[in-house]
Structures are given as C-alpha cells and as structure tokens.
Design brief:
Helices cover 16% and strands 32% of the residues. With 696 residues, the chain is of the alpha+beta class. Among the domains are: 146 residues, Galactose-binding lectin (Jelly Rolls, Sandwich); 176 residues, Jelly Rolls (Sandwich), CATH 2.60.120; 159 residues, Leucine-rich repeat, LRR (right-handed beta-alpha superhelix). Strand 3 and strand 4 form a beta hairpin. It is a single-pass membrane protein.
C-alpha cells in the first residue's frame, strides 16, 4: 500500500479514493483563509490545518498554500508513531485555576482550585446569583470605583498557548444583586463586553478565549464602564499545544486571540468539560454544551454509539472521543440550522466535526452527501463523511475562517443525498491583538506613579495604552509599527490634584513630545534630566510648587517652543539659553516666581554693594595668597628632601670623585676626608707643615 511516493490530490468533498491515497482537501474561503485537511483513505490518519500552516514535524502536518511538494507515504506511519510517542512523554500542561475571593484552596467535585491570588486590589463578596454549571462557589472578587476603573489579575505562567476561562456573576455586597456591565481585556486586547442580560445564559456568564502568552505573565483586566462593579468568580488558565487551532498565519498566529462564541456537542445528553469526557489534559479542558434549543429544523433526532472512534484525542487539538459518539441527525430529507449571535463585520473561524457512526447503515461513499452553508452562502459543498474519513467510525474536522457581515451567523446543513449528521460545532471570533506599550515606557510610568501621587481613579494599572477603549488617564500614545509597540508621547496630568514630586525617571520616557502638569501641587526641584528629552516641544509646569533653580539642561531642548513655569517657587537667575527663547519665536513664561530674576518681566537680579564687592575682593586675595603660600611650602619641602638625598650619595660629590680610590670602601673615604680636614686645621694653628698623608 505504501510502496510509492504519491502526489497530493486536490480533492473534492465526497470524492472516494483508493486505499492508501493521500487526500488534500482544500476549499477557498469567501473573505477568509481556505481550509486544508490531510487524511489517508482507510487509514487512522486525520490532520487539519489552515492555509500556509507549516507543521510537518508535528502530527504529520504538511505545508499548505502555494505548495507543490511530494510526500512520501512510506514516512507517514513513522511520523504518526513519533507523534504518539512524543505525546505520551510530554510533560503535564500548565494549569492555573483560581477561586476568586477565597483564602484557602477550594475543592469542587471535579477539580481543585487555588486560593485567590495575583489580583490588584478589590474586595471579596458573597456569591448569590447561582448558575447550574458551577453552583459550588460561594465567593467572588469585585472592584468599586475607589479601586479605579482598571484592575487586573497578573498570573505568572510559562510562555505558551492557553485557554483563558472565566465565570462571571454578582451578589449583594458587590452590586446589590443587580447585574453589572463591564469590559474584560486579555493581554491588553479587549475580549468581552458584558452587556445587559448577560447573566441570563451560560454562553455569556462563562467565557473562554485562546491566545498566546509571550511575556511570562497572563494578564486579565476588568474595566468599569460606569454600570456597576466588575466581578469575577473563577479564572482558569490552561495550556494548549503551540499549534492548536492554527489559523495558518505562521508566527502571526501569536497576534490573534480566538473568543469562543459557541462550542456545541450535538446530540449530547448533558453539558460537560473535556476532562469529564476523557479528553487529554493538553486539550485545555474545553467545555462542550448540548445543542438542545440551539437548532431549528424538521424531523430532527439524536443518535449515540459506544463503538470506538478513530482519529480522536490526537495532537494538536485533542478532541475527546465522546463528542464523535453522539450526533444530531435528520430524517426524510430534512435540514437543520444553528444560529449563533455574533459581532458584525468580524472574522470567525468555524470548526465542524463529523463521524459516520457505524450503526446508521452507511456502508459506502455517496450514501450521505450534504452542503454546509453560512448565512445562505456555501461554506463546504458536497460533504461526504464516509469518503473523507475512509470508512465508518472515524473523525473528520472541517475548518474555515471567514468575514461575516451580519449580526448572526447561521450554519445550515442541507441534504443532497440521504440525511444530515453533525457531531459538534465550534465558532470562534478572530480578534487581532493590540500591540502593547513599550516595556521601558511602562516601567518608567510605574516608577513615576507613587512619587507623583497618582490616585487610583486614574486607572494606572495594566497596560497604559491598551486596550484603546480603556487607556490610563493622562497618557498620550502613538503606535510604532516598526517596533510593534505603542510609545508614550505625552503626559496630560493638568488639574489632577497631584501633590507628589517629579523624579528623574521621567527622562526614561524618551519619546515624550509634551508634558502638561499645570495646576497641581507638585513640589521639589525640576529634574535636570528633562534636558535629555530631545523630542520635547511643550513643557508646562505652571501653577505648582516647584522650587530651586531652573536647570541649565533645559536650554539643550532645541525643539522646545513652549515653556510655562509661572506661579511656582523657583529661585535664582533664568539660564541665558532660555532667556533667548522668545527671540526665536518660542513662548516662555516665568512670572509668579518671586525669587526668580534675570529677564525682562522679572525683577533684576540684585547688584552687590561697594562694601560687599570689597569684601569679596579681599577674600579672593587672601584665599589666593594662602594657596600661593601653601605652594611655596610644598616646593621648599621637596627641595630639602632632594638636597638630603644628594648628601647621602657621596659618589656624586666632587671631592669624593677625586679622593676616593676605585675600590676603596666607603668608610675609608670618610676617614680620608676626616684626616685631610684635621691636617689642615693643625697646619693653620701651628703655622708649621703637617705630616704628609698617604696619597690616594
């Protein structure tokens, strides 16, 4: 069967193939990426990905898109064996489950929860609004306006791909038993907006998203919209494989998050978590709800089987076998439709799950064929489950990402031959993630926050610039595509009642082009490091309590056209480089500083009296004389030391050179000198001749 290398074939849905053939199912999308599905006829192989996904080393995935490679069929079983081996030996995924508001670990019938941690402020309340799915919880965490408009959970996790899942509710202490409305952002991107009546259904009381964490911290922020206090009961962060739910965007997959709009197990008897259904832990413990009341159609029934299903619980998605052992079916040529409420003009990724259950009597391709439509447009034509899977009891997954214009996404299964069968449906909103604020700018703002006395009401928690719907108050940002980040370009903190000090950390905000701290009570000196902000064009520190002198460094700001320092407590002379500013057309204001001087509009700097000048001159002369005297003393001391060294070195003296034999000891030379001197004294006293001394 595997004795030759075979071409990939561009298959039509429903087309049958000889055993061992490699089938590439490709469908162009209407406004979205096409879907690629690789499988082998009559083999236990089913691999799916999006166009341009290159995952040949993981689960046997093949590069899609403009590809023309040939695949060795001999290698596919080997690849699968390796995949199963690696999967079996893979470490356990990271799982964080937090029961918000609890002080100790919390046990429910299905899992153990961590005590509350990682939050930024807030209060604990009792949960009074009950939900059937998680009725075991009794506490929640909530935030009032005194905590500020933005509050977050920051959970340390390894970098990777995760499911973020939340349970929202409310109680008496937090919201007087009235439903609040608020927003939730994940990694700086707005993910959910809880709108009126969200608590009426599980689909909006529970939310989950799939996204990547690239900075070692999973961040979920809760943003007040002025309609009650944000509240959360549980938070779960569950690791997936990197290539799970691959959109085919390569490394740009990290730039998108998938919001689960619906995840339905068709024909299931009850709602259940993935682990309850026997899914691998790397499947992210996804929650599957029943499709009861979610469909419309005629002659609809459900079917279940206990027969094993092939191609399940495999990397990367690890779909549980149970979702393929039940199905919603139609009889007598009926159709079935599922309607999902959505946000208009957004991209959605649709994942459809099928398995031809062997109990239903389909024994060959072509006996069950149907079209799948979305909003009356063809999504997948001529779907033949038996042909795609290569037989009964084998899972098939079809996926496509597309742009949907309307407010609802309706999936309709329309029969062409036989009846309809569908096992499960997943619908995800594809959200492009916001570029975060540059890390150095974030750290600089955090360093300024407490010294300046920024109050909680200004919301300086989370990312300063994103989500764009909830930035920090008083911050101006600019997106830099080259750096793939947002830059802080302005501080607009005028009239905020600030009473702290301005520290040198402001110089770390190197992209600032304007600073406005007007009308506060900020004290202390003006940081000289502001002179390093080369892009600064406007600096307004008026009506504060700044003191000390104006830094000369401000004169280095060549682009500065507006400088307002009026009504502070500044002292001394205005630097000459700033005094010339108005001459070149700049607008500078220094008035209202009683002890500031040196330019028109301010008082003249005081002139010294004649006595003061005379005193200064005398002081300078005395100081100079003292310095000269110290220099002379030091010089004389060095001269004396040098002379002493010469005396102690006899070979350098003229008499030593003439009266010392070449090999005479030093002590002989000294005696000779002493002897000659004695003889001369005797001669001068007696007037006679002295005895002859030996010649040297």
């Amino acid at each position: 069967m595997w004795d030759e290398e075979m071409e990939l074939q561009d298959a039509k849905v429903g087309q049958s193939f000889s055993p061992g053939s490699l089938i590439l199912l490709s469908r162009p999308g209407n406004g979205g990426a096409s879907s690629i599905h690789l499988l082998t006829a009559q083999q236990d192989v089913l691999l799916d990905s999006e166009v341009n996904a290159t995952k040949a080393t993981e689960a046997g995935r093949l590069a899609a898109g403009n590809m023309g490679p040939r695949v060795s069929a001999m290698l596919l079983p080997v690849v699968l064996a390796l995949v199963w081996s690696v999967s079996a030996q893979a470490p356990a995924p990271t799982e964080v489950r937090i029961a918000c508001g609890t002080k100790e670990k919390y046990q429910t019938p299905e899992r153990l929860w961590d005590k509350d941690w990682g939050y930024t402020g807030g209060s604990v309340g009792n949960l009074t609004a009950e939900k059937q799915r998680d009725s075991d919880f009794t506490h929640l965490r909530y935030w009032t306006m005194t905590d500020g408009p933005n509050n977050c959970y920051n959970i340390t996790v390894p970098n990777g791909h995760y499911v973020f899942r939340f349970f929202f509710s409310f109680g008496q202490a937090d919201n007087s038993n009235r439903e609040p409305q608020f927003d939730v952002s994940l990694e700086g991107t707005l993910a959910y907006s809880l709108k009126p009546a969200w608590s009426n259904t599980d689909d909006t009381s529970y939310a989950d998203s799939l996204l990547f964490v690239d900075d070692g911290t999973a961040t979920a922020c809760f943003h007040s919209t002025g309609h009650g206090n944000p509240a959360v009961v549980t938070i779960e962060i569950l690791q997936l494989y990197e290539d799970a739910y691959d959109l085919g965007f390569g490394h740009w997959n990290h730039h998108y998050l998938l919001n689960a709009m619906s995840r339905v197990s068709c024909g299931a008897g009850k709602d259940a978590y993935g682990t309850t259904l026997g899914a691998d832990p790397w499947g992210g413990d996804r929650y599957w709800s029943r499709d009861v009341y979610k469909y419309e159609g005629d002659n609809i029934a459900t079917v279940e089987t206990t027969q094993p299903i092939r191609n399940v619980n495999i990397r990367p998605q690890f779909y549980p076998e149970a979702i393929y052992q039940g199905a919603t079916i139609t009889k007598f040529g009926g159709s079935v439709s599922y309607a999902f409420p959505i946000e208009p003009s957004q991209n959605y990724s649709i994942w459809l799950h099928f398995a031809e259950i062997g109990d239903l009597g389909i024994t060959a391709p072509g006996q069950r064929v149907f079209d799948v439509l979305y909003n009356d447009e063809v999504l997948f034509p001529d779907v033949d489950i038996y042909a795609l899977a290569g037989g009964p009891n084998a899972a098939v997954v079809l996926n496509k990402t597309l742009l949907v214009d309307g407010k609802a996404l309706t999936l309709k299964f329309k029969p062409k031959v036989g009846d309809i069968l569908v096992c499960a449906i997943e619908v995800y909103q594809v959200v492009e993630r916001e570029f975060p604020t540059k890390a150095s700018d974030v750290w600089a703002l955090k360093a300024l926050k407490y010294p300046m006395g920024i109050p909680p009401r200004m919301g300086w928690i989370g990312d300063p610039c994103v989500p764009q719907e909830h930035p920090w108050d008083g911050i101006a940002c600019r997106l830099d595509y080259g750096q793939k980040s947002r830059l802080i370009t302005g501080l607009e903190l005028q009239n905020e009642g600030l009473r702290g000090i301005l520290t040198n950390d402001i110089s770390q905000l190197v992209y600032l082009d304007h600073i406005n701290l007007n009308d506060n009570s900020i004290s202390g000196p003006i940081p000289a490091s502001i002179g390093n902000l080369n892009s600064l064009t406007r600096l307004d520190l008026a009506n504060n309590k700044f003191n000390g002198t104006i830094p000369e460094a401000l004169g280095r700001l060549d682009k500065l056209t507006e400088l307002y320092l009026q009504n502070n407590e500044l002292t001394g002379r205005v630097p000459a480089t700033l005094a010339a500013g108005p001459v070149r057309g700049a607008s500078f204001n220094f008035v209202g500083n009683p002890d500031l001087c040196g330019i028109p509009g301010l008082k003249a700097c005081k002139r010294l009296s004649a006595g003061a000048i005379f005193g200064i001159i005398i002081g300078v002369l005395l100081g100079s004389g003292f310095l000269v005297l110290c220099g002379v003393v030091v010089w004389k001391r060095r001269e004396n030391i040098a002379r002493a060294h010469k005396i102690m070195s006899p070979r350098e003296a003229p008499y030593a050179a003439s009266h010392t034999r070449a090999n005479a000891p030093v002590k002989d030379v000294q005696l000779s000198r002493f002897g000659s001197f004695t003889e001369q004294r005797l001669m001068s006293v007696s007037g006679g001749s002295a005895p002859q001394s030996p010649k040297v």
